[in-house]
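Batch manifest, entry 17 of 40.
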Amino acid sequence: MARRKRRASGFESIPVREPFLIVEQHPQLVTAICLSIMAALAICVALWAGQAFLLPIAVALVFSVILAPLCSRIEWFRIPRPVAALMALIIAGGIAYLAFSLIAQPAANWMENAPQTIQRAERQLRKLQEPLKPLTDISKEVQDLQIVPEGSAPASRTVVLQQPGLAQSVLASVQTAVVQTGFIFILCYFLLITRGEFRLKLIAFQTTLRDRVRAARVFRDVEKRVSGYIVTFSAINIVVGVGTGIACWQLGLPEPLMWGGLATLFNFVPFLGPAIMMGLLGLAGLATFDTLVEAAFPVLAFMGISFLEANLITPTIVGRRMTLNPLAIILVVSFWIWLWGPIGGVIALPLLIMFKVICDHTPALRVVGALIGSPIIRVARIDNEDIPLTPRPVAASEPTPQPAPPPLVIAPQGLA
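Output type: structure tokens
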């Protein structure tokens, strides 16, 4: 039986390109990409190396944008701008002091009993490790095995470095925090005073009328959206804190006021803050209750509150106008926490919103703004009317209509 002749695939006629052909044809593009990567790495190194100087500046910039509407409201009463800026800072500082004073005393009491709390938690954790005890015993025996060579091994020496005491470390941290707080207060005060002059100068230096209008809109949207974000999410986080405090009080967990305040503060850091809060509640539950089931109740209660906040409260209040890409939020928060610690995680979202507004008003960066923003939907525009391309349900006996395809327009859902 004759074998059927195999048909040629046609790939033999495709010319083989050199691996570095793109470098030969577009050397400027390759150079630009390499320089961009090197510039990004240099910026990261500079931000990390200059943390002591740049972090207060970033925090002051964020707080000046947040307090700008409050300062403007105070100026409506014919109060000079320097006095209005000082009053806005005093009001913000009073609110922060009141919030921390409600948490400080219960937290101090809880920290005094921290050794006993950790010991109780360890005893509860040993109950979880009992099923895995044979495996841990085997691993310990393997670690204890030592292979001694024939020759006598030289005696090992241990070098112990003397570390500074706990009191010295705490004192140094407090001094650094006081100096940076004073620098932030002074810098934020001058930013509030000179914000109008800085805005007018930046707008006046634009060459065309379109650029001036774009710069004015950037300033307006940054102030509006960052302030709206802080006010809205502060109210939502207070609701989460009140719910957590009530749940801890009902479950019998000590210091419910402290747990409510911590839930409010940690919820300002997306994803990472609730995870830390669940860990603390789990530790407190293990140290307070006798059984593992009872110890899991505070964590489950907080998980339920966080689920309702993320899927019901926040979408209902915020809507789609301030939504951001969750992947962008995770990457940005993780980057700033890795770079500047917990304070970087707090200011990460306001900085992301500022960057998003700048990208939305800059033609060359609108693609970046669309990537870090909310998803887009496809709509059909017929007679100046936007109709979502979602087919209505059709009965089984009803024939499916086949209309002519309308022109498609890509419209964003909303901007953060």
